[in-house]
User: Which sequence fits this backbone?
C-alpha cells in the first residue's frame, strides 16, 4: 500500500551542477540497515510531492543506513584512486507513480559523512543532504558499537550478534522473515525536481551476492529521530560486503493526459 501525500513541493536551493551526472562505483565494506516504523499521518509531512509513502497497516517506514565505503570513484577509474569514508543516511520508503507503473525507492532527508571532501562533493553532486560528522565503529566478534558525533544527529547504537533478534511489540509483521522480506528496499533514490518530475538514482548490485542477517539492537539512540515520539524500531539487518554501482540519475516526468 501507499499513502497519498498532500504536502506541497518545497524546492531546494538550485545547484549550479547537475545531480548525479555520472556513475560511481565502490564497495560497502560494512553496512547496517536500521528500520523504524512511524504512523503514516505523522511521517507524511516529511515527504515532498509528488512522492507517496509506502505504507503497511497504517505505518510508514524509515531506513537508516550506517556504512563504511571503500574505493569510491567515478566508474572507469582504477580502484586505487578511490576514497574511503563512513556514512549515515536517513531515508523514507517512498513511491513515485509517473506513468502507471510505480517506482519504489528511498527518499533521503539527511546524511552524515566523516570525510570533508566527500561531504562537499556529495552536496554539490547528489541529493543526499550531507553533514560532516565523526563516525566511529568499536567492533568485536560479538558486537559493534556505533557512535556518530554531529550537531542534531548524534547516534549511539549497539549491534549484538549473540542475542537472538525479535519483533518489537505492535509490529505489523507476523515474523522476522516477513519483516525482512517486506523491508528489503528497492535500490533507488527518489528526489523530486518539481510536482511532475522526479530524479531517480538507481543502484546496480549483484543480487545473488546480497547477504544479510537480522541482528539484535539493544541500544538505538538516533538523535535526529528522537523528537518523533511515535517512531519505533522495527528490525536491523547487517549486510555482508558487496560492490555497488550508483548509476547516473534520470529525471522522469509524469505524463499528463491530453486535453
Assistant:
Amino acid at each position: 500500500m501507499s499513502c497519498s501525500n498532500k504536502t506541497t513541493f518545497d524546492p531546494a536551493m538550485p545547484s549550479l551542477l547537475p545531480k548525479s551526472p555520472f556513475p560511481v562505483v565502490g564497495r560497502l565494506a560494512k553496512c547496517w540497515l536500521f528500520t523504524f516504523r512511524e504512523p503514516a499521518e505523522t511521517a507524511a509531512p516529511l515527504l515532498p510531492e509528488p512522492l507517496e509513502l509506502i505504507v503497511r497497516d497504517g505505518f510508514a517506514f524509515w531506513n537508516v543506513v550506517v556504512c563504511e565505503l571503500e574505493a569510491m570513484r567515478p566508474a572507469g577509474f582504477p580502484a586505487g584512486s578511490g576514497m574511503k569514508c563512513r556514512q549515515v543516511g536517513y531515508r523514507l520508503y517512498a513511491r513515485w507513480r509517473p506513468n502507471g507503473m510505480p517506482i519504489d525507492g528511498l527518499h533521503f532527508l539527511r546524511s552524515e559523512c566523516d570525510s570533508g571532501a566527500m561531504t562537499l562533493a556529495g552536496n554539490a553532486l547528489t541529493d543526499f543532504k550531507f553533514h560532516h560528522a565523526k563516525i566511529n565503529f568499536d567492533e568485536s566478534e560479538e558486537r559493534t558499537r556505533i557512535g556518530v558525533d554531529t550537531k542534531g544527529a548524534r547516534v549511539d547504537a549497539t549491534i549484538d550478534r549473540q542475542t537472538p533478534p525479535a519483533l518489537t511489540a505492535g509490529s505489523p509483521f507476523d515474523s522476522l522473515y516477513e519483516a525482512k522480506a517486506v523491508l528489503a528496499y528497492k535500490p533507488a533514490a527518489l528526489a523530486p525536481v518539481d510536482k511532475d518530475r522526479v530524479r531517480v538514482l538507481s543502484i546496480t548490485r549483484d543480487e545473488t551476492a546480497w547477504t544479510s542477517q537480522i541482528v539484535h539492537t539493544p541500544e538505538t539512540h538516533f538523535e535526529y529521530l528522537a523528537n518523533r515520539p511515535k517512531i519505533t524500531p522495527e528490525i536491523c539487518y547487517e549486510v555482508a560486503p558487496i560492490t555497488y554501482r550508483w548509476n547516473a540519475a534520470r529525471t522522469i516526468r509524469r505524463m499528463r493526459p491530453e486535453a
